[in-house]
Design brief:
Elements: E1 10-15, E2 18-20, E3 26-32, E4 42-45, E5 48-49, E6 53-55, E7 60-64, E8 71-78, E9 81-91, E10 95-100, E11 103-105, E12 111-117, E13 127-130, E14 133-134, E15 138-142, E16 145-149, E17 156-164, E18 167-168, E19 174-178, E20 190-192, E21 206-208
Parallel strand pairs: 2-9, 11-19
Antiparallel strand pairs: 1-3, 3-7, 4-5, 4-8, 6-7, 8-9, 10-12, 12-16, 13-14, 13-17, 15-16, 17-18, 17-19, 20-21
């Protein structure tokens, strides 16, 4: 009797080879000797298995990344064995540590500085929301500092969130919208002396606040 030994799978590429530490990204794994039978091919990112693997051919599988941190080895297993030759890098989601100033008029328009970690300096990759309202202009000078123009908002506190391609902040940093103060000048009271001139009255006069 001749027993046929299944060949060990190989990995030639993982696309993309990095993504958010929250997981949930779909990657394509290419190589050889995969199995198209559901459940026969598994993909591990470090010690954590992918929650969903689908192989369309003996050379191509897609896998959903589990949550993770740092750079981990990627393992593909089938009936022929297990292989690992490539790695996947988890990129942390952004965080916010402070916003300065943290309050302003409900009409918006003022510029705030947001400090934190894991921001993107690529134009358009980092967005800032004040509650449900997006900032109309965001600029990140580094991965730890961004400036943003505050949009109009209702009076009260709102959560401030930063989003990049790697995820959205979950920190509880808030911004406080305050009522617009309208200043109306008050005209001084004019008191006039209307007594007839004479008998010690030199003239009719009107003064601001006092009578003559």
């Amino acid at each position: 009797m001749v027993f046929e030994v299944a060949p060990i799978p190989t990995i030639s590429s993982i696309t993309p080879n990095s993504g958010t530490s929250a997981g949930g990204n779909l990657v394509t794994v290419t190589g050889t000797n995969f199995s198209t039978v559901p459940g026969k091919t598994t993909v591990n990112f470090g010690n954590l298995p992918s929650p969903a693997v689908s192989c369309s051919s003996l050379t191509t599988c897609t896998a959903v990344t589990p949550p993770g941190t740092g750079t981990v080895a990627v393992y593909v297993s089938s009936s022929g064995g297990t292989t690992s030759s490539l790695s996947y890098t988890y990129i942390p989601v952004p965080t916010i540590s402070s916003i300065t100033p943290n309050s302003g008029l409900s009409t918006g328009g003022n510029v705030v500085t947001i400090s934190g970690t894991n921001f993107s300096t690529v134009p358009g990759d980092t967005t800032v929301n004040f509650g449900n309202n997006p900032s109309t202009s965001v600029s990140c000078s580094s991965t730890t500092s961004c400036s943003a123009v505050v949009p109009p908002g209702a009076v009260g506190q709102v959560n401030v969130n930063i989003k990049t391609t790697n995820g959205t902040t979950t920190t509880g940093v808030t911004y406080n919208y305050v009522t617009n103060i309208i200043y109306t000048p008050i005209t001084p009271l004019r008191i006039c002396d209307t007594r007839p001139v004479g008998a010690g009255i030199a003239s009719n006069q009107c003064n601001n606040g006092t009578a003559s």
